[in-house]
Amino acid sequence: MSSRESILQAIRSIPRAEKILPDTPDFKSQGELGVLFTKALEANKAEVMDRTQFEEWMEKNQSTRVFSYSEDFQKYSSVILPEDPHELENLQLAILEGQFGVAENGAIWLEDKELPHRAIPFITEHLVIVLNKTNLVDTMHQAYQQIGANHSGFGVFIAGPSKTADIEQSLVIGAHGAKSLRVVMI
């Protein structure tokens, strides 16, 4: 037996008592979910709008390379989904559907079934997420309970445009994802 195996076997032979994890309290939000969700998104530098406001914004929008994976807004799509996600490198605007939002921090859950290519929310210059206003939960605890075992293999929480800073604290918007996020509440 190698030294490695003898060490691992010795570790495995140590008796361990099961430790029961404490119950997680049910944290309740301090207000109406839609209001809290909107405030959190706005604090994250995202913009929240309704269908009418979004359609008015799209009329003024100058984006020519738009991909919509939302049935409600297919009319704005000008890009056919390519086989190779690298061909989306010049995508100006993506419109996707979120599964649910988290009121405490403005995070929106996107999953494989709503993402034809995983790169879309990160490669697009500007991102729009369409979300049903009844699909809100209070906290991340509830969000993870909702995801549960039904997770499809890939999912991501998005809570605003991409922001990062270097060691000198110079803020850079859009370095690792979209430069802007708009959330359309329907």
From TrEMBL:
Against Gene3D superfamilies, the record matches this protein to: NagB/RpiA/CoA transferase-like (3.40.50.10420)
**Cited Pfam families:** LUD_dom (PF02589)
- LUD domain span: 46-186
What the entry lists under PANTHER family is as follows: LACTATE UTILIZATION PROTEIN C
Q: What is this protein called?
A: L-lactate dehydrogenase
Species assigned in the record: Algoriphagus sanaruensis
The organism that produces this protein has a lineage beginning with: Bacteria, Pseudomonadati, Bacteroidota, Cytophagia, Cytophagales
